[in-house]
Amino acid sequence: MLDLLFRNIDFLIDLVLAFITMSLGLNLSKKDFSNIISFPGSLGIGLVAQMILHPISAIILMAFADFSPAVKVGFIIITLCPGGVTSNLVSFLLKGNVALSISLTVVNGLLCMFTLPILVNLSLDYFINQSSTIELPLLKTITHIGMVTIVPALIGVFINSKFTDLAHKIKPVLKYLLPILLMLIFGVKFLAPHDKGGIHLSNEELWSLGFWVLLLNFAGMILGYLLGALFKINIQNKVTIMVEVGLQNTALALLIAGNILKNADMQKPAMVYAMITFFSTLIFAWLIKTTSLKFFDKSKSA
Protein backbone atom coordinates (compact mmCIF):
# COMPACT_ATOMS: atom_id res chain seq x y z
CA MET A 1 0.00 0.00 0.00
CA LEU A 2 2.76 2.42 0.97
CA ASP A 3 4.72 1.53 -2.15
CA LEU A 4 1.65 2.40 -4.25
CA LEU A 5 1.41 5.78 -2.51
CA PHE A 6 5.14 6.39 -2.99
CA ARG A 7 4.97 5.62 -6.73
CA ASN A 8 2.03 7.98 -7.24
CA ILE A 9 2.95 10.81 -4.88
CA ASP A 10 3.07 13.50 -7.62
CA PHE A 11 -0.37 12.46 -8.87
CA LEU A 12 -1.68 12.53 -5.28
CA ILE A 13 -0.42 16.09 -4.83
CA ASP A 14 -2.30 17.10 -7.98
CA LEU A 15 -5.41 15.27 -6.74
CA VAL A 16 -5.40 16.80 -3.25
CA LEU A 17 -4.73 20.26 -4.69
CA ALA A 18 -7.70 19.79 -7.04
CA PHE A 19 -9.91 18.76 -4.10
CA ILE A 20 -8.74 21.82 -2.15
CA THR A 21 -9.71 24.21 -4.91
CA MET A 22 -12.97 22.36 -5.56
CA SER A 23 -13.86 22.85 -1.89
CA LEU A 24 -13.23 26.57 -2.33
CA GLY A 25 -15.64 26.50 -5.26
CA LEU A 26 -18.23 24.78 -3.07
CA ASN A 27 -18.09 27.80 -0.77
CA LEU A 28 -18.60 30.30 -3.56
CA SER A 29 -21.91 31.74 -4.67
CA LYS A 30 -23.04 34.86 -6.50
CA LYS A 31 -23.11 36.59 -3.11
CA ASP A 32 -19.46 35.76 -2.53
CA PHE A 33 -18.46 37.23 -5.88
CA SER A 34 -20.36 40.39 -4.91
CA ASN A 35 -18.32 40.36 -1.67
CA ILE A 36 -15.23 41.03 -3.78
CA ILE A 37 -16.86 44.32 -4.72
CA SER A 38 -17.90 44.83 -1.08
CA PHE A 39 -14.28 44.74 0.17
CA PRO A 40 -12.31 46.52 -2.57
CA GLY A 41 -9.99 48.29 -0.13
CA SER A 42 -9.28 45.27 2.04
CA LEU A 43 -8.98 43.00 -1.01
CA GLY A 44 -6.45 45.33 -2.64
CA ILE A 45 -4.44 45.64 0.58
CA GLY A 46 -4.41 41.88 1.00
CA LEU A 47 -3.25 41.29 -2.57
CA VAL A 48 -0.45 43.85 -2.25
CA ALA A 49 0.73 42.22 1.00
CA GLN A 50 0.51 38.71 -0.50
CA MET A 51 1.82 39.24 -4.00
CA ILE A 52 4.35 42.05 -3.52
CA LEU A 53 5.45 42.59 0.09
CA HIS A 54 5.71 38.94 1.12
CA PRO A 55 7.94 37.88 -1.83
CA ILE A 56 10.12 40.96 -1.19
CA SER A 57 10.46 39.94 2.46
CA ALA A 58 11.53 36.45 1.32
CA ILE A 59 14.19 37.90 -0.98
CA ILE A 60 15.55 40.05 1.87
CA LEU A 61 15.58 37.13 4.31
CA MET A 62 17.31 34.87 1.80
CA ALA A 63 20.03 37.48 1.36
CA PHE A 64 21.07 36.71 4.95
CA ALA A 65 20.38 32.95 4.96
CA ASP A 66 23.17 30.44 4.40
CA PHE A 67 21.27 28.06 2.11
CA SER A 68 21.98 26.66 -1.33
CA PRO A 69 20.51 28.67 -4.21
CA ALA A 70 17.89 25.94 -4.83
CA VAL A 71 16.62 26.09 -1.24
CA LYS A 72 16.43 29.89 -1.47
CA VAL A 73 14.31 29.58 -4.61
CA GLY A 74 12.11 27.16 -2.65
CA PHE A 75 11.41 29.90 -0.10
CA ILE A 76 10.54 32.36 -2.87
CA ILE A 77 8.17 29.84 -4.48
CA ILE A 78 6.22 29.59 -1.20
CA THR A 79 5.56 33.33 -1.12
CA LEU A 80 4.43 33.35 -4.76
CA CYS A 81 1.60 30.89 -4.00
CA PRO A 82 -1.86 32.01 -2.84
CA GLY A 83 -3.58 30.94 0.37
CA GLY A 84 -5.85 27.90 0.46
CA VAL A 85 -8.35 26.03 2.57
CA THR A 86 -5.97 26.08 5.56
CA SER A 87 -5.90 29.88 5.65
CA ASN A 88 -9.67 29.94 5.20
CA LEU A 89 -10.01 27.52 8.12
CA VAL A 90 -7.76 29.61 10.39
CA SER A 91 -9.73 32.77 9.48
CA PHE A 92 -12.90 30.90 10.42
CA LEU A 93 -11.43 29.73 13.76
CA LEU A 94 -10.30 33.28 14.60
CA LYS A 95 -13.69 34.74 13.61
CA GLY A 96 -12.12 36.68 10.78
CA ASN A 97 -13.81 37.80 7.58
CA VAL A 98 -14.17 34.40 5.88
CA ALA A 99 -15.77 35.96 2.77
CA LEU A 100 -12.72 38.21 2.38
CA SER A 101 -10.42 35.23 3.01
CA ILE A 102 -12.06 33.20 0.25
CA SER A 103 -12.08 36.22 -2.08
CA LEU A 104 -8.34 36.75 -1.56
CA THR A 105 -7.65 33.06 -2.16
CA VAL A 106 -9.70 32.99 -5.36
CA VAL A 107 -8.40 36.26 -6.86
CA ASN A 108 -4.78 35.54 -5.94
CA GLY A 109 -5.19 32.00 -7.28
CA LEU A 110 -6.38 33.34 -10.62
CA LEU A 111 -3.57 35.89 -10.83
CA CYS A 112 -0.80 33.52 -9.74
CA MET A 113 -1.64 31.14 -12.58
CA PHE A 114 0.10 33.72 -14.78
CA THR A 115 2.45 35.51 -12.36
CA LEU A 116 3.92 32.41 -10.69
CA PRO A 117 5.71 30.90 -13.75
CA ILE A 118 7.22 34.26 -14.69
CA LEU A 119 8.36 35.16 -11.17
CA VAL A 120 9.74 31.68 -10.46
CA ASN A 121 11.85 31.89 -13.61
CA LEU A 122 13.13 35.31 -12.50
CA SER A 123 14.02 33.79 -9.11
CA LEU A 124 15.86 30.94 -10.82
CA ASP A 125 17.79 33.42 -12.91
CA TYR A 126 18.65 35.57 -9.88
CA PHE A 127 19.63 32.87 -7.38
CA ILE A 128 20.90 30.08 -9.63
CA ASN A 129 21.80 32.12 -12.71
CA GLN A 130 21.01 29.24 -15.03
CA SER A 131 17.38 29.71 -15.95
CA SER A 132 18.09 28.21 -19.35
CA THR A 133 18.89 24.90 -17.60
CA ILE A 134 16.24 24.92 -14.84
CA GLU A 135 13.18 26.69 -16.13
CA LEU A 136 9.42 26.57 -15.80
CA PRO A 137 7.79 26.13 -19.23
CA LEU A 138 5.25 28.97 -19.17
CA LEU A 139 2.40 27.46 -21.19
CA LYS A 140 2.73 24.02 -19.62
CA THR A 141 2.83 25.51 -16.11
CA ILE A 142 -0.15 27.78 -16.69
CA THR A 143 -2.10 24.81 -18.08
CA HIS A 144 -1.06 22.55 -15.20
CA ILE A 145 -1.99 25.11 -12.53
CA GLY A 146 -5.27 25.82 -14.30
CA MET A 147 -6.18 22.12 -14.44
CA VAL A 148 -5.62 21.57 -10.72
CA THR A 149 -6.96 24.92 -9.49
CA ILE A 150 -9.32 26.81 -11.78
CA VAL A 151 -11.15 23.82 -13.31
CA PRO A 152 -11.87 22.12 -9.95
CA ALA A 153 -12.96 25.48 -8.49
CA LEU A 154 -15.44 25.92 -11.33
CA ILE A 155 -16.72 22.38 -10.71
CA GLY A 156 -17.22 23.31 -7.07
CA VAL A 157 -19.15 26.45 -8.04
CA PHE A 158 -21.33 24.37 -10.38
CA ILE A 159 -22.09 21.81 -7.65
CA ASN A 160 -22.90 24.59 -5.19
CA SER A 161 -25.29 26.26 -7.62
CA LYS A 162 -27.01 23.13 -9.00
CA PHE A 163 -26.83 20.72 -6.05
CA THR A 164 -27.01 23.07 -3.09
CA ASP A 165 -28.15 20.48 -0.54
CA LEU A 166 -25.26 18.18 -1.44
CA ALA A 167 -22.79 21.05 -1.21
CA HIS A 168 -24.09 22.01 2.26
CA LYS A 169 -23.65 18.43 3.46
CA ILE A 170 -20.07 17.95 2.30
CA LYS A 171 -18.68 21.43 3.04
CA PRO A 172 -18.39 20.95 6.83
CA VAL A 173 -16.65 17.61 6.27
CA LEU A 174 -14.19 18.97 3.69
CA LYS A 175 -13.30 21.95 5.90
CA TYR A 176 -11.53 19.61 8.32
CA LEU A 177 -10.80 16.64 6.04
CA LEU A 178 -8.69 18.52 3.49
CA PRO A 179 -6.07 19.82 5.97
CA ILE A 180 -5.75 16.22 7.20
CA LEU A 181 -5.27 15.01 3.61
CA LEU A 182 -2.61 17.68 3.14
CA MET A 183 -0.77 16.42 6.21
CA LEU A 184 -1.05 12.87 4.84
CA ILE A 185 0.47 13.93 1.52
CA PHE A 186 3.37 15.68 3.23
CA GLY A 187 3.84 12.66 5.47
CA VAL A 188 4.06 10.34 2.44
CA LYS A 189 6.42 12.79 0.76
CA PHE A 190 8.60 12.74 3.87
CA LEU A 191 8.65 8.93 4.15
CA ALA A 192 8.94 8.03 0.45
CA PRO A 193 12.33 6.86 -0.91
CA HIS A 194 14.33 9.53 -2.70
CA ASP A 195 14.05 7.73 -6.06
CA LYS A 196 10.24 7.85 -5.78
CA GLY A 197 9.95 11.56 -5.07
CA GLY A 198 10.60 11.48 -1.33
CA ILE A 199 12.16 14.42 0.49
CA HIS A 200 14.45 13.54 3.37
CA LEU A 201 15.28 16.16 5.98
CA SER A 202 17.96 15.74 8.62
CA ASN A 203 17.43 17.10 12.13
CA GLU A 204 19.88 19.88 11.34
CA GLU A 205 17.90 20.83 8.21
CA LEU A 206 14.62 20.77 10.13
CA TRP A 207 15.95 23.17 12.76
CA SER A 208 17.67 25.44 10.26
CA LEU A 209 14.77 25.56 7.80
CA GLY A 210 12.26 25.82 10.65
CA PHE A 211 13.93 28.96 11.99
CA TRP A 212 13.79 30.75 8.62
CA VAL A 213 10.30 29.43 7.88
CA LEU A 214 9.05 31.02 11.11
CA LEU A 215 10.83 34.28 10.25
CA LEU A 216 9.15 34.30 6.85
CA ASN A 217 5.79 33.33 8.35
CA PHE A 218 5.92 36.10 10.98
CA ALA A 219 7.28 38.65 8.49
CA GLY A 220 4.33 38.04 6.17
CA MET A 221 1.79 38.34 8.97
CA ILE A 222 3.36 41.48 10.41
CA LEU A 223 3.49 43.12 6.97
CA GLY A 224 -0.17 42.22 6.36
CA TYR A 225 -1.21 43.62 9.73
CA LEU A 226 0.82 46.83 9.42
CA LEU A 227 -0.44 47.51 5.90
CA GLY A 228 -4.00 47.02 7.12
CA ALA A 229 -3.33 49.33 10.10
CA LEU A 230 -1.83 51.95 7.78
CA PHE A 231 -5.07 52.08 5.81
CA LYS A 232 -7.18 51.81 8.99
CA ILE A 233 -9.24 48.77 8.06
CA ASN A 234 -11.10 47.01 10.86
CA ILE A 235 -9.53 44.37 13.09
CA GLN A 236 -11.51 41.52 11.54
CA ASN A 237 -10.14 42.29 8.08
CA LYS A 238 -6.62 42.91 9.40
CA VAL A 239 -6.55 39.50 11.04
CA THR A 240 -7.89 37.90 7.86
CA ILE A 241 -5.17 39.53 5.75
CA MET A 242 -2.53 38.49 8.29
CA VAL A 243 -3.62 34.87 8.01
CA GLU A 244 -3.83 34.93 4.20
CA VAL A 245 -0.32 36.33 3.91
CA GLY A 246 1.10 34.01 6.58
CA LEU A 247 -0.36 30.74 5.28
CA GLN A 248 0.48 29.76 1.72
CA ASN A 249 -0.75 26.90 -0.46
CA THR A 250 2.23 24.62 0.13
CA ALA A 251 0.68 21.89 -2.02
CA LEU A 252 0.99 24.26 -4.99
CA ALA A 253 4.58 25.06 -3.97
CA LEU A 254 5.34 21.32 -4.00
CA LEU A 255 3.68 20.98 -7.39
CA ILE A 256 5.94 23.69 -8.83
CA ALA A 257 9.16 22.60 -7.12
CA GLY A 258 8.59 18.86 -7.34
CA ASN A 259 6.18 17.87 -10.10
CA ILE A 260 7.37 20.47 -12.61
CA LEU A 261 10.92 21.53 -11.67
CA LYS A 262 11.81 18.08 -10.25
CA ASN A 263 14.15 19.60 -7.67
CA ALA A 264 14.30 18.00 -4.21
CA ASP A 265 16.05 20.92 -2.48
CA MET A 266 13.43 23.40 -3.66
CA GLN A 267 10.72 21.29 -2.02
CA LYS A 268 12.30 21.30 1.44
CA PRO A 269 11.12 24.77 2.54
CA ALA A 270 7.53 23.90 1.54
CA MET A 271 7.71 20.67 3.54
CA VAL A 272 8.79 22.47 6.71
CA TYR A 273 6.39 25.35 6.06
CA ALA A 274 3.52 22.87 5.93
CA MET A 275 4.61 21.21 9.18
CA ILE A 276 4.62 24.26 11.43
CA THR A 277 2.91 27.33 9.99
CA PHE A 278 -0.68 26.25 10.61
CA PHE A 279 -0.03 26.36 14.36
CA SER A 280 2.34 29.35 14.32
CA THR A 281 -0.14 31.37 12.24
CA LEU A 282 -3.10 30.41 14.42
CA ILE A 283 -1.28 31.27 17.66
CA PHE A 284 0.43 34.46 16.44
CA ALA A 285 -2.71 35.84 14.76
CA TRP A 286 -4.75 35.04 17.90
CA LEU A 287 -2.23 36.90 20.07
CA ILE A 288 -2.23 39.92 17.76
CA LYS A 289 -6.03 39.98 17.61
CA THR A 290 -6.39 39.63 21.39
CA THR A 291 -3.80 42.34 22.05
CA SER A 292 -5.35 44.70 19.50
CA LEU A 293 -8.85 44.27 20.93
CA LYS A 294 -7.55 44.85 24.45
CA PHE A 295 -5.35 47.90 23.90
CA PHE A 296 -6.51 49.56 20.69
CA ASP A 297 -9.84 50.81 19.37
CA LYS A 298 -11.27 48.88 16.44
CA SER A 299 -11.40 50.85 13.21
CA LYS A 300 -14.82 50.90 11.64
CA SER A 301 -13.70 51.36 8.08
CA ALA A 302 -13.46 48.37 5.78
Features:
81% helix, mainly alpha, 302 residues, Na+/H+ antiporter like fold
- The average pLDDT is 81
**Distance between the first and last residues' Cα:** 51 Å
Q: Taking Cα atoms only, what radius of gyration do you get, to the nearest Å?
A: 18 Å
Largest sheet: none
Give start-end ranges of low-pLDDT stretches: none
Describe the protein in words.
This protein starts with a helix and ends in a 7-residue tail after the last helix. It contains 13 helices and no strands. The chain has one domain (2-290): Na+/H+ antiporter like fold. By secondary structure, the protein is mostly helical. The model has no long low-confidence stretch (mean pLDDT 81).
In short:
This protein is mostly helical and 302 residues long. It is 81% helix and 0% strand. The model has no long low-confidence stretch (mean pLDDT 81).
Task: Walk me through the topology.
Blueprint: H1 2-7, H2 9-26, H3 30-38, H4 40-64, H5 69-80, H6 85-93, H7 98-127, H8 138-162, H9 164-191, H10 203-230, H11 235-246, H12 250-260, H13 264-295
Helix pairs in contact: 2-8, 2-9, 2-12, 3-7, 4-5, 4-7, 4-10, 4-11, 5-7, 5-12, 5-13, 6-7, 6-11, 7-8, 7-11, 8-9, 10-11, 10-13, 11-13, 12-13
